[in-house]
Specification:
Elements lengths: L28 H17 L1 E7 L2 H13 L5 E4 L15 E6 L3 H17 L3
Antiparallel strand pairs: 1-3, 2-3
Length: about 120
């Protein structure tokens, strides 16, 4: 039996649009729940690039700070395996975080960079 995903009103077969909410009907509440779960998974899987560098030490430090703050970090880029061996000559590597945590990650990175710039050499 078709169901409105918003108001949960059940309709007879053949009806495809909720008369009150004006949204397409789903075949069942379980289909609606599955769609909702997929949307949540997709939101988690969406990543934002928050930092780019070819400096292995800098990448490793920022990645560590973000992880210590509870932010999942994914590194992506050329010659990525060298990041974990602290070798120079990396191609550019991108640090990515879940989209929902991107703003927080950028703030942490900005704080780290401003602290680094204000430290006397």
């Amino acid at each position: 039996m078709p169901v409105c995903p918003q108001c949960k009103y059940e309709y007879v077969e053949g009806i495809t649009l909720c008369a009150d909410c004006k949204v397409p009907l789903v075949l069942s509440l379980s289909e609606m729940e599955a769609q909702s779960e997929n949307n949540e998974i997709n939101a988690v899987n969406e990543l934002a690039i928050v930092f780019k560098s070819s400096n292995a030490m800098e990448l490793s430090m920022i990645k560590s700070y973000l992880e210590a703050s509870g932010i999942g970090v994914f590194a992506n880029g050329s010659r990525l395996s060298e990041l974990y061996m602290n070798m120079e000559g990396l191609g550019e590597v991108y640090l990515q975080v879940p989209l929902a945590q991107a703003e927080q990650a950028r703030e942490i990175i900005a704080d780290l960079q401003s602290t680094d710039e204000s430290t006397p050499q």
